[in-house]
Amino acid sequence: MSAGTNLPPPDIDLSGNVTRFFRELVDDALKAQGSQATGAAESYVVALLADYAKPSQLSGETLRRPLTLLLDEAMRRSGQERFERLRSLGDGVLYVSGFFGDHLETRGVELDYVSALGARAYGSAASMLRHASSAATDEQSRAPDVFAELAENFRMFVELVSRIAERLYAQSASTHGSMLKLYERWLKTGSDALADALAARGVVPVRSSGMLH
Prior knowledge:
The chain has 213 residues and is mainly alpha-helical.
């Protein structure tokens, strides 16, 4: 099963402070969904989004190759290479599920299965860190267990990234063509953020007619 997609991400203005930009989005999304995350996990998601905002990151193998194959390859490695592959897989699944979850569903991909795979990748990375820290100092062993948090609350973080994606899609819609794409995405997701964005532009989203009003 591949998570590849030809859908482009929303346009993002990278002329300013990218980290600050995504920090505000993450904070707002957490408040909107009434969820909590440690500061370390928030910072990790901010950094992940900032990395994937770069076009070069979208060609990563997590977006192109079967996820089960990537997990199998990671588990066959050892040491630092295994950890990096697991972390990268978890990151890619989280990003793809949040930004392109509706597209995956239209292709018949079970999001629960994808989320379980992403959580397993992060969980395995967390286990490696815990094993490595068994001989570490007390200060090192008290470091935030970010990957365990991401694994245990993977679906919550997917929802977080999805909220951010909807907001970015809503902000990027300006032309008639992009408005139609925004409406089509609203039909698939039923997102309140997209509905508000359409209404703010004088468009009343209606499901029954399939038309913009």
